[in-house]
Amino acid sequence: MTHRVPALVVGGGISGLVCAYALQKAGIEVQLVEASARPGGVIHSIARDGFLLERGPQSFAGTAALRKLCAELAISDQLLQAPPRAPRYVLIDGALHPVPLSPPAFFTSSLINAQTKWALLRDVFGKTVPPDADESVAAFVRRKFSPQLLDRLVAPFVSGIYAGDPERLSIRSAFPQLHEAEKVTGSIVRGMLRLPKAKKGSRERPTLQTFREGNETLVRALSNRLGAALCAQTSVSGISRQSDGSFDVRLSRDGSEESASAKFLIFATPADVTAKLLGQLDSSFESLLAPIEYAAVAVVSLGYRKNDVGHSLQGFGFLVPRSAGLRNLGTVWNSSLFPGRAPEGHALLTSFVGGTTDPAAATLKPEELAILIHREISPLLSIKSGPVFSHVTIWPRALPQYNLGHGDRLAAVAKLLARFPGVWLTGNYLRGPAIGSCVEQSLAVAEEVRESLSP
Ligand SMILES: Cc1cc2nc3c(=O)[nH]c(=O)nc-3n(C[C@H](O)[C@H](O)[C@H](O)COP(=O)(O)OP(=O)(O)OC[C@H]3O[C@@H](n4cnc5c(N)ncnc54)[C@H](O)[C@@H]3O)c2cc1C
Are 281 and 235 part of one and the same domain? Predict the structure, then answer.
């Protein structure tokens, strides 16, 4: 059976859901196909034994676009906000220290040496020019500040976002605002202070949020709005271009093959899947998109009786520099941030293992990962007894890496895409992996599709 649909969105993670929703809202007939039975991609909340855990992202920054989306979906009343001043800790010399987040805290912190403080002053009052060539995050921090800042604060922060290697991540692709700040003003601090003024409406610092029943509330609300336009358990296995410029799409559903004809194709699939599908139109897509590296990450959620935990757990959690010699990348104290994450008298702690600097970690068995994390966090948090609850998720391809050359790669993809009018890309490997970035990008793509229909 072949059916015609003006717009077909492939992939029902947050990127595809938001894009399809925005197209539908604009009055464009759309179909969203999602390979698995459950939409949401890596966003997956689970309620079990009184604990409410997240298998993927633990929370998200409440950006203006996300707030507006929640209001439209009538789920704003379910939003929970993390305490905005919750301290974040970093493990240095075997103990947890609060991360200095304000300028006075930075200059008085004993974690930061004089060389780094002096480098910061030099940045505030001086002027530097970024190199023409793509620069790694590590090289950028060493050039502008110090190796100590890289090891103690920047690298752990980078692994918290990308689970990546600062020696390979590109500063201009992974943190474009920092690159832009230096390029425009010659100073990171001056440039970052100027940024909110240039970007109208973004003066507010987004706080971390989730929903009362977990991040999946957003997925469910979008899926409900899409209704029959969302086809789960349906994957795209092939595409070809027709002589009239439309696309013939082969779909597999419940073991049977179907085809659809679409004028607009929006790929919201991971880079490797997009590479294979678009490679059927032009093999250059495959050679450009397939090499984008993804970090494997294991998410280990452990529940403890509060009486067994000596630490107060007041705060966001802690990050672990690689020099500390642990495999844990960091631990979020979920039940300290949001209510309803653990039964009365219990605490839920979620840790991350793996990333591109420790790919072997994600090959461990779930039981081994739970034991490893319990062993590593127990002395830091004075935990006296084993966990009463444990859940482990291993994502073999969790997070895309914006490594050196990523910007040139995406520019080449954009150039190639110009030869295929009607095809758009969205997803977390393009303009930021955060949920907020995926939402903004998907709304922008939907707007481009809408504009292409206007006379
Ligand atoms: C462990 C982890 C922790 C994270 N922590 C945070 C955080 O704290 N805050 C934050 O903002 N972000 C976080 N992120 C990042 C963020 O969650 C993701 O980048 C974002 O959700 C990705 O959404 P997506 O729709 O682009 O991709 P995905 O969620 O990967 O969705 C892609 C979808 O495409 C479908 N698909 C694949 N092939 C086909 C096919 N052939 N046909 C049809 N469908 C197909 C897949 O089934 C999937 O549903 C985290 C991510 C992970 C993995």
Answer: yes
pLDDT of residue 199: 53
Neighbouring residues of 358: CB distance < 8 A, sequence distance ≥ 6: 327, 329
- Asked if 267 and 318 sit in the same domain, the reply is no
Residue 1 has pLDDT above 50, yes or no: no
CA of 148 to the centre of ligand 1 (A): 33
Give me ligand 1 centre to Cα 104, in Å.
Answer: 38
Index of the ligand 1 atom closest to the CA of residue 36: 47
Among 215-219, 251-255, 329-333, 384-388, name the one with the lowest average pLDDT: 251-255
How far is the centre of ligand 1, averaged over its atoms, from the C-alpha of 226 (Å)?
19
pTM, two decimals, is 0.96
Whether residue 19 is contained in a domain is answered as yes
Cβ(438) – ligand 1 distance below 6 Å:
yes
266, β-bridge pairs: 9, 424
Query: Do residues 19 and 268 make contact, with C-beta atoms less than 8 angstroms apart?
Result: yes
Regarding the beta carbon of 235 and ligand 1, being less than 6 Å apart is answered: yes
Sign for the CA dihedral angle at 438, 12, 280, 240 comes to negative
Overall residue count recorded for the chain in this entry: 455
Model pLDDT, residue 113: 95
Residues 283 and 417 in one domain: yes
What element of type H or E holds 156?
A: helix 155-162
Q: What is the pLDDT of residue 455?
A: 64
Name the residue among 391, 324, 309, 311 with its Cα closest to residue 351: 391
* Number of domains composing the chain: 3
Going by C-beta distance under 8 Å and a sequence separation of 6 or more, which residues neighbour residue 84? 207
Residue 182's domain comprises 100-198
Per-residue pLDDT, 197: 55
